[in-house]
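Notes continue from the previous slide.

Worked example: a multi-chain complex. Inputs as given:
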Amino acid sequence: MKAKEFFSKRKFKWSFILSGLAGGLFLTFVLALTVGSVNIHPFLVTKILFSKIIGIPRTWPASFEAVIIGVRIPRILLGALVGAALGVSGTAMQGLFRNPMASPYVTGVASGAAFGASLMIVLGIGSFWISPAAFLISVSTAFLVYSIARARNKVPVETLLLAGIAISLFFSALVSFTQYIAPEKQLRQIIFWLMGGLWGSNWDKVITCLPPILLGSVGISLFSRDLNAMLSGEEAARNVGVEVKNIRKIVLILASLVTSSAVAVTGIIGFVGLIIPHIMRIFVGPDHRILLPCSFLAGAIFLVWADILARTLIAPTELPVGIITAILGVPFFLFLLRRRKKLMGF
Amino acid sequence: MRLKVDKVSFSYDSLAALKEVCFEVKTGEILGIIGPNGSGKTTLLKCINNILKPKRGVVFLDELNISSLRRKEIAKKVGVVPQNSVNRFDFTVFDAVLMGRFPYLGRFDRETKQDFDIVDRALELTGIQNLSSRLITEISGGEYQKVIIARALAQEPQVLLLDEPTLHLDISHQIEFLELLKLLARNEGLIVIIVSHDLNLAARYSDRVLILKEGEIYQAGVPEEVFIPKHIKDVYGIEVEIIRSSATNSINIIPLQFLRQNPGTQK
């Protein structure tokens, strides 16, 4: 077979996979809109949505419209965005570090965000400042870890991983301290934040985290070829022309930015960023040109599904979605792991 | 076209690894670099394509100073087959070779028909078209070595650097591989530089040989001049017999006895 034929066939296959996942995401959206404290028929949901664009006489209670437009849509969008962010940045981190244990949180962004949030809660400054503070401290943590790991103009990945772990532990201790001194009510708030959840979703949060997550994800995907070459080692990548040092820095910054934006609005949601990249790698292989968009879509689908369960399993009470992602994701992942006997490539 | 290594020195921290190394290689020529472990062979290769930046000295490709170029520009001129390449990830042979087009593709570019044609040609030159849809994790070591060469050829380089390329190959694959390099040098006009521990293969396939000893050039010249018992004894500390094969008309180096040991104590 000639290369041209092979690659055009493959392009077709990749488009097929991506449309499949996009379709899956769309169906997930529709389903997520219909279930909740009141179940609304999918047909009615569609009608309500279209009534916003074209004039349809209203035959439904006004509360339905308020629930769908004001509550469910922002929550679903936020879930999708955060899931996508964690999927993409997890994939980028694992590729960058060539380490299957890497997650979006390797550069300490999660514990940095946790410290920022818990500090704001304890100081009682007002809930408006929680997300911005979490974001700022989160991003600064990533820069701190990077500059600690840089020695003599080199940034070895092992040092970077260890620096990330050390700084994470440091910030965790600070978070524990704030918990220790916090009064009962604030303590509860901190614990809820740390568990991670989509309960505080609103349109403002969607609008603030949408640009960094989308731009960051597109930015990371521009480096797919570089990441592919870097999988065969730093030197092999340099031999084919990759400026490894610069690329590593740029992708690290982009991935940290994407993760921080997600963590700042929803708290720490674990397992999505670790497991989604592995699952997608099992299905589509190690090539970042397809792996990154697949992880983006699959992360979105997975987190919206997890949230559907989180808010319906023991309704009317909600569970933190982080609990669901772990309870649901881990067994599925272990099942795949047992079947394939190894993590792809690692 | 010629590659000129001009007084290149390199040191790891305070440890001098190369001292004022000078040589030239012309287009179509195969240069073999030999020398004991730690004599600076791999360091020299890495200095040539600026993976390691020489502390002093310059590497020229014609009038072009290689160390002043960006990595993509170097990759268009110099292809490398490193000592131990890892192949843990499930890329197809097609994809692995297409990576050689990296230096020609901008961040927003897609591969064109020309890139695919070059990949086809690299696969054809290395004789692995039949493997092209296979995964690189599912082929043999010898086949993988050819994939790496094909990737380097897809870079359309003028210089090919190889670091012990025959290390893990059986003798038939060794000969097949070196015949391929000879062909690439003669027909494609490549400058081929091979670092090797295999003195016999170096003697048979190199147009010229360079012996490194403690980071310095000990001897350089055609194999017949370089491979004489005195030189080998000086550099490796071992007595050898040199014979000429009537079949290949190349010289063979037969190791005899290690000098610093008593014959009786050897296992």
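Summary box: The interface with chain B takes residues 1-4, 6-7, 222-223, 225, 228-229, 231-233, 235-236, 238-243, 285-287, 344-346 of chain A (CB under 8 Å). DSSP finds 14 helices and no strands in chain A.
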